[in-house]
Structure prediction request, 177 residues.
Amino acid sequence: MSTVVAETARLILRPFQPADREAYLAIVGHPAMGRFDEEFPRPPEVAKADFRHALELAPFTRDEWNELAIALRPAGPVAGLISYRPHRAASGELAVTLGFHVHPDHQGQGLASEAMLGFKEALRARGVRRLCAVVDRANVPSIRILTRLGLACAGPSDTGVPDELAYECLLGPPGHP
Ligand SMILES: CC(C)(COP(=O)(O)OP(=O)(O)OC[C@H]1O[C@@H](n2cnc3c(N)ncnc32)[C@H](O)[C@@H]1OP(=O)(O)O)[C@@H](O)C(=O)NCCC(=O)NCCS
Prediction:
């Protein structure tokens, strides 16, 4: 059994397991995932390679995109995934850049919000002090989630994509906002 990263009322956030392969491919290969991100939907061969990488990567590997399953409790299907890249911010503190995807069959139930709030507390407990994200300015659901997490717009992103905005926040130690 892989190590659980966080639990919420409805969800378990945990590393991917081999049995999650079909659910993973269904999420990252779904056409709706590409609405605001040209890296999605991932072609099948890319998605399969990414899944192998997700299984092999040690949790919380710095400077790499790590992935976590958003699984429905108690042992239900994988509804989505969290992507996260731990790195050292220019200002020195431990930072994590966030991404999240929920399969359309499970959207609109607050699952992404719930998952990301749980993940935020797990990151805080690990010593992460800055959260970052890049989001398309028209991606209203995603911006609502980031805002709920406490991130605020810091201006245009440095990705070079005209409509992408950088969001970020500082994270206090456990027990702080
Ligand atoms: C963004 C995404 C993860 C949201 O998943 P979800 O589980 O449906 O999210 P939630 O149910 O927690 O809803 C988040 C907020 O978006 C709002 N929302 C959902 N669909 C919406 C829509 N079509 N238009 C406007 N707001 C919408 C919800 O009302 C909620 O806001 P509120 O709680 O303040 O009312 C999902 O839409 C998705 O996977 N999108 C494609 C990938 C993506 O864009 N990822 C983010 C960038 S990395």
Observations:
- The mean pLDDT is 95.
- The domain at 6-170 is CATH 3.40.630.30 (Aminopeptidase).
